[in-house]
Inverse folding.
């Protein structure tokens, strides 16, 4: 039985989870493969102080990642450091040394994944990245192989566990955003600087990767319209509930006759849909195919063990391909080559919208708002006002019939000039196509 040798770089949460699985599940991994996965070397800036599983106690340790990617016995490098600078160097140097790479790096794969895959193939190596999106859900495998015979027309996902945890806590307990965020940071769900999660940038990288897999296009993350959850309040969940909806940070990709529309933004989704039931730190992806209709995938989106499973599963797949002599068997992006593409503007999207206002109450408010909506050719659907003990910061909601995002934006600009508004209106799309 010929073994395949591994080198691992990065011993944070994901690296530690990966090591634990390689140690505790070694016998079953070997049984499934028919050969051993043998860890040869680990790398971390603090490797000397790290406590490794007992089976790896005598393994070679280094603080220099170059030692791992140039190690003569290493076949596969696991890059688990994150970021786009050092990680890029690790991958490029590994490929130059004809080493295959498994990565959990969503930011790098969204930014340079297709380019790095080309480099891997040019030198006869492989690149695998299942852990880069929704760690506990094998969504890459689904899009790359499981439903590859279908033609995807739409993909919607909840791809950031931190944001979903915060929104769920606001919904269930009526707690203000800042209080929930502080608690999420205390529990370790949110970073000290939470902007990547709550402003949608983490989810944006993940959507760029999934859109490449689903639609075969090279997507630049900065081309995706992105809006975070900072403005969501308990009042919004109360009004959403009255409308039979909840609020989630939704990553959306839709193929339209004019092109692909991509967005990451909070949206109202009907409570009757399966996506609305995704709570806490869980992730989910809903996919609509032209032939296979709707499919749904759900699981832990992050954490040492779920993400570690994705990393180890990729290590096993790449090891099999090395043993079979076919490292180019299936592109990690599900297409032999990605097209060069720029999504069409989200302003062309047509949806019903939820508009939430906070006002200093006075006569004529509804008339003023209705006049602006009429000028933009937007039809009212309903006006909702729940009981409130203040008239100085009074929240209420207007829902409108389907209109374009551009029309809503134009209306919000005009409304924001009105003196009775405490803050600019909050506009959220209402998803009805689930």
């Amino acid at each position: 039985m010929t073994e395949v040798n591994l080198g691992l770089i990065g011993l944070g949460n994901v690296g530690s989870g990966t090591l634990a699985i390689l140690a505790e599940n070694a016998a079953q991994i070997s049984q499934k493969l028919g050969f051993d996965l043998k860890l040869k070397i680990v790398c971390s800036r603090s490797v000397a102080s790290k406590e490794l599983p007992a089976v790896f106690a005598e393994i070679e340790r280094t603080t220099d990642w170059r030692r791992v990617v140039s190690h003569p016995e290493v076949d596969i490098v696991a890059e688990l450091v994150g970021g786009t600078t050092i990680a890029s160097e690790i991958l490029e140097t590994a490929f130059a040394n004809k080493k295959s790479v498994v990565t959990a790096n969503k930011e790098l794969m969204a930014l340079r994944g297709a380019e790095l895959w080309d480099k891997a193939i040019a030198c006869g190596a492989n690149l695998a990245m299942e852990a880069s999106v929704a760690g506990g859900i094998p969504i890459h495998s689904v899009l790359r192989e499981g439903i590859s015979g279908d033609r995807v027309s739409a993909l919607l996902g909840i791809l950031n566990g931190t944001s979903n945890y915060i929104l769920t806590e606001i919904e269930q307990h009526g707690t203000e955003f800042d209080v929930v965020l502080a608690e999420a940071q205390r529990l370790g769900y949110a970073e000290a600087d939470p902007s990547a999660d709550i402003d949608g940038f983490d989810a944006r990288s993940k959507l760029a990767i999934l859109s490449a897999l689903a639609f075969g296009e090279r997507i630049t993350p900065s081309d995706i319209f992105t809006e975070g959850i900072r403005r969501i309040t308990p009042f919004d969940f109360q009004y959403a509930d009255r409308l039979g909806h909840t609020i989630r940070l939704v990553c959306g990709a839709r193929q339209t006759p004019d092109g692909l529309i991509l967005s990451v933004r909070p949206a109202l989704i009907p409570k009757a849909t399966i996506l609305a039931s995704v709570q806490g730190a869980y992730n989910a992806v809903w996919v609509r195919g032209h032939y296979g209709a709707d499919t749904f995938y759900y699981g832990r989106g992050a954490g040492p063990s779920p993400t570690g499973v994705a990393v180890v599963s990729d290590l096993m797949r790449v090891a099999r391909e090395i043993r079979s002599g076919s490292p180019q068997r299936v592109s990690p992006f599900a297409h032999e080559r990605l097209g060069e593409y720029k999504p069409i503007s989200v302003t062309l999207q047509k949806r019903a919208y939820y508009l939430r206002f906070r006002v200093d109450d006075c006569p004529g408010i509804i008339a003023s708002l209705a006049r602006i909506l009429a000028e933009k050719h937007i039809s009212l659907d309903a006006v909702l006002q729940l009981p409130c003990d203040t008239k100085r910061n009074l929240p209420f909601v207007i829902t409108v019939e389907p209109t374009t995002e551009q029309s809503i934006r134009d209306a919000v600009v005009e409304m924001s000039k009105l003196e009775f508004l405490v803050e600019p209106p909050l506009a959220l799309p209402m998803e009805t196509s689930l």
Remarks:
- Residues 139-300 form a domain with the Dihydrodipicolinate Reductase; domain 2 fold (CATH 3.30.360.10).
- The two ends are 49 Å apart (CA to CA).
- The longest strand covers residues 245-256.
